[in-house]
Amino acid sequence: MGDILATEADLLGMIKEYLNFEEFEETVHSFDKECQSKGRLVSKPRGSALRDSKTRATQKDLLSSFDDGDHKVFFELWTENIPSEVKDADAEALRLEFYLHIHFTIYPLRRHPGRHDRAEFEERISYFKQYLETRGAALSQTTEFLSYYALPFVPNPTAHPSFKNLFQDSWIPELRDKLEQFLSVTLKPSNTPRLMTLYKEGGRSTKEAMQQLQLQLVESDRRITSYVRKFSKMQADYQNLIGITAELVDSLEATVSGKMISPEYLQSVYVRLFSSQMRQSVVQSTDFTRPGTASSMLRLSIAPQRPKDVPMLPSLDYEKLKKDLVEGADRLKSLLLQALRWRLTRSLPGEQRTTVLQAYISNDLLERYSTKQKIVLHLLRSTNEIVRQYMARLINAFASLADGRVYLSQIPILLKLLTEVLRKEDRESLTRENVLVALQKLSLRRSQQTAMIADDLIGWLVDELQDSDCLSDNTLEYSAALLMNLCLRAKGKRKCAENGKHVLKVLTDLLGHENHEIRPYVNGALYSILCIPSVRQEAKEMGVEDILRSYSEEENPDLNRQFEFIIKQLNSEEVLQPQHRELSGESLLTTEYLGIMTNMAKAKRKSTPLPQPSVDEPLQRPVTPSSHRNASAG
C-alpha cells in the first residue's frame, strides 16, 4: 500500500511540476486545494541535486570506460545519455564519436605494444568496420578522416606512417580532455519537467525498440532456418555413416574368415562416403585403391576451415546520393539506381551483403521518414521510363531480402505508389513486372497482405489472370502466387466470396494452362476460398469437382492428391457456423479464456519444428515462387 501511495504522490508531483513550468497558476492553486481536500500527498520536485548526481555518475562511468578501453559499456552509455539531436546532427559530436571509435579500436595495441591479443584486436576491427559502414559513413568524404577508413586493412597500424599520431603519448590525454568538455556541456541537467521528458523519450524509445526487435526477429528466423538445414544434413550424414560402418565391420569379420575384399567393393564404399561432400564426378575419378587416399581425404574433410576475409566496400555519401537521385538529370538518376542495385545484388552473400543492406537502411536510402515534397520513391512517377524501371528494380532487390522487406513495410506511401504503377503501366512493361514481383515478395508480411486486400488488389489480380495468354511466364507465375498469398487470409477469402463465380471460373481455367509452374498456387487459392460456404455452393453449381477430375493426370500422382484435398474441402460441411461478429475458434479461446502460459515448460523441454505441408496438400502458407521451387527441389 505504501508503494502505491508513494507512486501516486510522485505522479501528482510531476503533474504539478509541469503546470508550474507552463505557468498555469490558477490551475495549480485549484490542484493544490483539491489534493488537500482529498488527503492526497503531492511529492516535491526532485530538484537539481538529484539530477546533478545522476549526471555526474553518468559522466564518471563514461570516462571510466574510456580509460579501461571498454567500448561496449561506453557506447551503450553514449547511446542512452547523449540526446539524439546532438549525437546525430552536431558536427562536433560526430567528429568526437569517430575518434572515440579509433581509440577503442587501437586500445589493445597501445596497452600491450608488440604482444597484444590478436583475437581481441580483430573483434574490435570488425566493430569499427561496422561503424564505418553505418554511422561513420557520413564522414567518408571529409578529408580529415579519409585516411582512417584504411585502418581495418592495415596489418600493423603501429608501424604505418598515416597512423603515427595515434600512438603518440599526447593523443589519448587530448582526446580525453575533449570528451570531458563535451560531456560537461551536453549532460548539463535540464529544467524540462519530468512529465514532458517521459512523454518525449517514451514514444521514441518504444518505436526504436520495436524496430530493433523486428530486425532481431528476422535475423533469428534466418539463423533458425540455417541451423535446421545444417542439422538435417548432419543427421543424414550420420545415418549414412552408421550404415557404412556396419558394412565395414561385416567386411572385417569376413577377412578373419579368409574372404578377400575386392577393390570394386572398396571403391563403392568410398563413393558413398564422400558423395555428400564432393561432386560426383570428382568422387568417381578419384583412385581410392591407392593406400592412404581415403584416410587423407577423411581427415581433410573434418579439418577446421579458415574463414575467408570478406572485403568491405567503400563507404558512400548517402545525403549527396539522395540529393542527386531527386534533383539530378534522368541519365544520372538511372545510373545511380543501377549502381545501388548492383552493389546489393552483386555483393557476396552473407556478411558483405548484410552490411550493404544495413548501410542502405540506416542511412534511409528510400527516405521513409522524409517530409519533403519530393523523395527518392517518387522516381516511380518519373516521366522517364528507364528511371521508373530502375527504381522498381531497386525496390525488388530490397524485397528479396528479409531485412529489406521489414524496411519497405515501414514506408507508408510505398504500397500506394506500387499499386499505382501496377494499374498504369502497360502489360509488357518491365517496370510493371518488377513492381508485381516486389509486391509478391512483400505479401509474405502480414501487414502488407492486409493493406493489399484493402486496396482491392485481389480484384485486379483476378481480372489480370483472366487473360492469362497475354501474360509472360514470370508475370503469370508471380500473379498467381500473390493471389494465393492474399487468399490465405480470412479477409482475402471474404473478398473473393464477393464475386465467387468469377474467381472460381478464372482459377479453374488456369488449371488447364500450359505453364504448370502456376498449379501449386492455383490449387492453394482454390483450397483456401472453398472454406467459405457461399463459395462452396457456387463451386458445386459450376461443377468444379468434375472440372478438377478432368485435369487429373495418371503420370502426376502428386497433382491428383492435391485435387483430392480440394474436392474434400469442396464437399465438407460445417454443422456450426459462427454468426456475424461472433467469436469462434482460436479467437474465442484467446479473447475470453486466455490464461497463464502453462505449456511453456513442456515447450522448452522438447522443441518440435512446425509440421510442413506435404507435396500432396495444397499450399497453406505464404510463399514466393523461388522459395517454393527450392523447397520442391529439396
UniProtKB/TrEMBL annotation:
Pfam family for this entry, one: ARMC9_LisH
Region (Disordered): 603-634
Stretches assigned to the LisH domain: 452-571
Domain of life from the UniProt record: Eukaryota
Cellular localization per UniProt: Cytoplasm, Cytoskeleton, Cilium basal body; Cytoplasm, Cytoskeleton, Microtubule organizing center, Centrosome, Centriole
Domain ARMC9 CTLH-like: 57-188
GO cellular component: centriole; ciliary basal body; ciliary tip
Major localization listed first in the record, in broad terms: cytoplasm
Keywords: Cell projection, Cilium biogenesis/degradation, Cytoplasm, Cytoskeleton
InterPro entries: ARM-like (IPR011989), ARM-type_fold (IPR016024), ARMC9 (IPR040369), ARMC9_ARM_dom (IPR048959), ARMC9_CTLH-like_dom (IPR056327), ARMC9_LisH (IPR048957), LisH (IPR006594)
Polar residues composition bias: residue spans: 623-634
Biological process annotations from GO: cilium assembly
Protein's name according to its UniProt entry: LisH domain-containing protein ARMC9
Native source species: Acanthochromis polyacanthus
